[in-house]
Design goal:
There is one protein chain. The longest helix is centred in the first third of the chain and has 37 residues, at about 110-145. The chain has helices spanning about 15-20, 25-30, 30-50, 55-75, 85-95, 110-145, 165-190, 210-215, 225-230, 230-260, 285-310, 325-345, 350-360, 365-375, 380-395, 405-410, 420-425, 425-430, 440-455; strands at about 150-155, 155-165, 190, 220, 265, 350. It starts with 15 loop residues before the first helix and ends with a helix. The protein folds into 3 domains: about 15-100, Orthogonal Bundle (Fumarase C, Chain B, domain 1), CATH 1.10.275.10; about 110-145 and about 165-200 and about 225-350, Fumarase C, Chain A, domain 2, CATH 1.20.200.10; about 360-455, Orthogonal Bundle (Ribonucleotide Reductase Protein R1, domain 1), CATH 1.10.40.30. Strands 1-2 form a two-stranded antiparallel ribbon. A two-stranded parallel ribbon has the order 3-4. Strands 5-6 form a two-stranded antiparallel ribbon. The chain is mostly helical and about 450 residues long. It contains 19 helices and 6 strands. Helix 7 (about 165-190) runs parallel beside helix 19 (about 440-455).
């Protein structure tokens, strides 16, 4: 059993089991730099409000920096509590009773809200940078393979021919929107709650705007209750991370499929593959599989925090201590996935011949045959039926559309002429879609050029 930090109200010490159940130091110790940064800013505010003398403030700040050096060097001995208590206790051990003045005018409630916001701002910026590097790898692979034709799919069935570059740039667009969402989330995280107190605000003349400026916040929170009682900025981050991981999981699934012998479209580097404990021939895409699996973990963290917050009355409740583990775990998961994915993509080998060969079966040019009839004045629905019959004919005879003679084509419609042979060529098919955003090589090259310029410009 331990003596309570704030023990005036209580006649009994806290039971050991309560201490163990309450403890958060195992995960919130990562906040120490931000906790000390916030405490230094609060100390200066107390000095400006004449609650502390210049000498007292200097001693507290010097003590806080000494505690930070101890933690950074690994010499600090953590005890079962939270990081805020641990820092304050060690400060008091170093500078004496003066350390007890640090908490004047603030509460654990606005202190922890400040720490989490400072930490998350820092992490969002790092994630955005990692996303930028990952997007650069996507663009690099897309640029190296401009001109490689592959089957495009719907329902995992071969549908129409596309350029691999076009396919990869689809992911570039997705991850660009993810970047925008992280920046948007940063706007709502970038509000300074210190001064909100427990819930009603501080009775001391603390200049919150000066504190916000010192700590690099864009603004201050406008309601003291809201400042300490909501974690919607953390929920928004988890939601944004979940969407990003969904995109990464989709790319992972394609890498897994493409690396299989059934597809054979790519080969992953040995450095980013693993073997089997029993089958010596195996080369497994474990990185992509783990990223796909960890996506579910990030989803779970989002649902966990939503569930924690959904029934809480205003203002702060101890339930909100449960915001940190899902938040920290998601940050670690997202950063880890992005770090490993970029070099994995850049080192994979693209089997151009296999991709091109795969366009020869599956009648990927059937829509082009229908469009040929439409240009001759045939209603599209009628043209669709005619070409469907042509495809059935080819299936029964083991032929492709390119194999058919002009006589055979005319057997299905008198509108077919000798030029149908050129109209259904795969190269013509893929390059006929010259609309903005289409898969014609001219349009793909334009978007690739823009993407390369965006990457060169930087992420922030």
């Amino acid at each position: 059993m331990t003596k309570k930090l704030l023990s005036g109200r209580f006649k009994k010490t806290t039971h050991r089991l309560v201490d163990e159940f309450n403890a958060s130091i195992s995960f919130d110790k990562r906040l120490y730099k931000f906790d000390i940064l916030g405490s230094i800013a609060h100390t200066r505010a107390l000095q400006r409000a004449r609650v502390l003398t210049k000498n007292e403030a200097a001693r507290i700040i010097s003590g806080l920096k000494a505690v930070e050096r101890e933690i950074t060097s690994g010499k600090f001995r953590f005890t079962p509590e939270d990081i805020h208590t641990a820092v304050e206790k060690r400060l008091t051990e170093k500078i004496g009773p003066l350390g007890g003045k640090l908490h004047t005018g603030r509460s654990r409630n606005d202190q922890v809200a400040l720490d989490v916001r400072l930490y998350l701002k820092d992490q969002i910026r790092e994630i955005v940078w990692l996303l930028h590097k990952f997007k650069a790898s996507v663009v690099e692979v897309a640029d190296k393979n401009l001109g490689v034709i592959m089957p495009g799919y719907t329902h995992l069935q071969r549908a129409q021919p596309v350029y691999l570059t076009h396919h990869l740039l689809a992911y570039y667009e997705m991850f660009t929107r993810d970047t925008e969402r992280f920046f948007d989330c940063l706007k709502r995280t970038d509000a300074m709650p210190l001064g909100s107190g427990a819930l009603a605000g501080s009775p001391y003349n603390l200049d919150r705007r000066v504190i916000a400026m010192e700590l690099g916040f864009a603004r201050i929170t406008d309601n003291s209750i809201d400042g300490v009682s909501d974690r919607d900025f953390a929920v928004e981050f988890l939601s944004t991370a979940a969407i990003m991981m969904m995109h990464l999981s989709r790319l992972s699934e394609e890498i897994i499929l493409w690396a299989s012998q059934e597809f054979g479209f790519i080969e992953l580097s040995d450095a980013f593959s693993t073997g089997s404990s029993i089958m010596p021939q195996k080369k497994n895409p474990d990185v992509a599989e783990l990223a796909r699996g960890k996506t579910g973990r990030v989803y779970g963290n989002l649902v966990a925090l939503l569930t924690v917050m959904k029934g809480l009355p205003l203002a702060y409740n101890k339930d909100m201590q449960e915001d940190k583990e899902p938040l920290f775990d998601t940050i670690d998961t997202v950063k880890g996935a992005l770090r490993v994915f970029a070099p994995m993509l850049k080192t994979m080998k693209v089997n151009k011949d296999a991709m091109r060969e795969a366009t020869k079966s599956g009648f990927l040019n059937a829509t082009d045959a229908a469009d040929y009839l439409v240009k001759k004045g045939v209603p599209f629905r009628d043209a669709h039926g005619v070409v469907g019959a042509v495809v059935a004919h080819c299936i029964n005879r083991g032929k492709t559309l390119e194999d058919l003679t002009t006589v055979e084509w005319k057997g299905f419609s008198k509108e077919f002429g000798p030029d149908i042979k050129g109209a259904v060529r795969i190269e013509r098919s893929v390059n006929s879609r010259k609309i903005h955003g289409g898969t014609a090589v001219t349009e793909v090259a334009k978007r690739l050029k823009d993407a390369k310029a965006e990457i060169k410009k930087g992420c922030c």
